């Protein structure tokens, strides 16, 4: 809108707080908003911080505010998944196509994006496996298949949902169209869990591991 960086950061921070109050999504929203607020605050002071730094500080803040959060599976799962994604994002991107002066085709870009999503899901499943076993006594690999539908569906819901809010003010007909698209995305998101109906063997009940087993698992994973 033509505002300076600092003014824009202030408005963005206010918008984040309003978003958190409206959504009220528990530990995952608190984690996302606190990380974003830290990054925005750093940008306000012309400082760039790494994602891992923001996530670590947000985790420390959440534990300081609510020490029992460390026993909240939603909080632990959220921070574990976000930390895994930050780890993946830190990998150097391939620039092999640049040496030949060509851009990869749309099919190759789509294939690369799909492969990265499957890889990210695999790593997240590995990181969160003992946490799910500890709190819920289950081990599952359903996310490997469910995310192929759930992740694109969630993107559709988020983008069209925000567009719907803006269009409802000036273009009601566009809001109706965006609402229909968003509803389709929600339906697809909910149906992604039906993979367990087709392949129930993707979920296994397991005994809850001890703290010693958790420590050995993460030491081996590291």
Compact description:
The chain has 222 residues and is mainly alpha-helical. Helix content is 75%, strand content 3%.
Keywords:
single chain, 222 residues, mainly alpha, two-stranded antiparallel ribbon, 3% strand
Outline the secondary-structure elements.
Elements: H1 5-23, H2 27-44, H3 51-65, H4 73-89, H5 96-99, H6 106-136, E1 138-140, H7 143-170, H8 172-191, H9 195-198, E2 203-205, H10 211-221
Antiparallel strand pairs: 1-2
What report would you give on this structure?
With 222 residues, the chain is mainly α. It contains 10 helices and 2 strands, in the order ααααααβαααβα. The N and C termini lie far apart (45 Å). Residues 94-100 have low confidence and may be disordered.
Task: Please state the CA-atom Rg, rounded to the nearest Å.
Answer: 20 Å
Specify the number of helices. 10
Secondary structural class: mainly alpha
> Which residues form runs of ≥5 with pLDDT under 50?
94-100
- What letter string, H or E per element, gives the SSE order? HHHHHHEHHHEH
Q: How many strand units? A: 2
Into which percent range does the helicity of residues fall?
over 70%
Mean of residue pLDDT values: 84
Largest beta-sheet characterization: 2 strands, antiparallel
Shape: globular
Instruction: Bin the strand percentage.
Output: under 5%
């Amino acid at each position: 809108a033509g505002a300076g960086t600092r003014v824009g950061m202030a408005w963005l921070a206010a918008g984040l707080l309003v978003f958190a109050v409206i959504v009220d999504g528990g530990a995952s929203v608190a984690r996302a908003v606190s990380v974003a607020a830290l990054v925005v605050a750093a940008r306000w002071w012309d400082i760039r911080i790494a994602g891992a730094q923001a996530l670590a500080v947000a985790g420390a803040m959440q534990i300081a505010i609510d020490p029992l959060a460390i026993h909240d599976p939603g909080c632990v799962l959220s921070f574990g998944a976000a930390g895994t994604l930050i780890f993946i994002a830190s990998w150097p991107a391939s620039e092999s196509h640049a040496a030949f002066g060509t851009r990869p085709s749309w099919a190759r870009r789509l294939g690369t994006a799909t492969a990265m999503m499957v890889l990210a899901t695999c790593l997240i499943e590995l990181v969160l496996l003992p946490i799910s076993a500890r709190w819920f006594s289950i081990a599952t690999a359903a996310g490997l298949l469910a995310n192929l539908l759930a992740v694109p569906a969630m993107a559709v819901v988020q983008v069209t949902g925000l567009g719907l809010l803006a269009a409802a003010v000036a273009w009601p007909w566009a809001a109706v169209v965006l609402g229909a698209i968003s509803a389709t995305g929600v339906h697809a998101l909910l149906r992604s869990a039906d993979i367990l109906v087709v392949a129930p063997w993707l979920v296994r009940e397991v005994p809850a591991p001890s703290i010693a087993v958790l420590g050995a698992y993460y030491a081996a994973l590291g």
